[in-house]
## 1
Amino acid sequence: MEKILIYGFLFILGLLAGFFYFTNLWKSVNQHKENKSKLIFSSFLRFPIPIIAAIIGGFLAGVVGIIIVIFGFSVFQIFYLVKKGSQLKKDLEEYAKTLEEENKEKDN
């Protein structure tokens, strides 16, 4: 029973690491669109988040703990990327509609 609680905690820790990593990633991309050096520097600042979570998992449950943290991180990554991808697709479709309407107005 104790291992189940530890593994659950480590899975949630992986989810939280993914949350902080990807939300800050998206903020950095929006903030430093043009400046690639600042974007790379901000990625180095975010990089320790999943590493620290994996180290905590290693201390608490060994290799299995590291795998569970990585699994939680990956689950959040898939969820976040699907969510952002659908949002970007929606934004792109709206932009295409506005361009189409502008072209129709120019033709008339």
## 2
Amino acid sequence: MDLIFILLMLLGLLIGIFAWYRDRSEKDKRFSWLSYASLLISLFLILTMYSTRGSFLIYTVAIGSPLSLMLCGYTLFKRREKKIMAGIGLILSLISTGIVFIIGTFVVTNN
């Protein structure tokens, strides 16, 4: 289980480094609504994971984690976009995805 979590973190780090390297020469960067949305959705998923129980939690995190990963990835590779908020959102969504994998594994295997 720890290997999956470590691989997810390394994947997020590599995506962030590649996005920064790709756009390092761009001028006039700014935050757009995509940056704010990627960070807020990731924060919402983390808060939902620790504050609710039951089927709402399962559906919200199972649908929200891949959605957040895609939104953060798109925002990271968008030109003229500052990367810090999308990077933080990517790390938070990878944490929530790792937790979903770990909990899902224990629920499926009944251990």
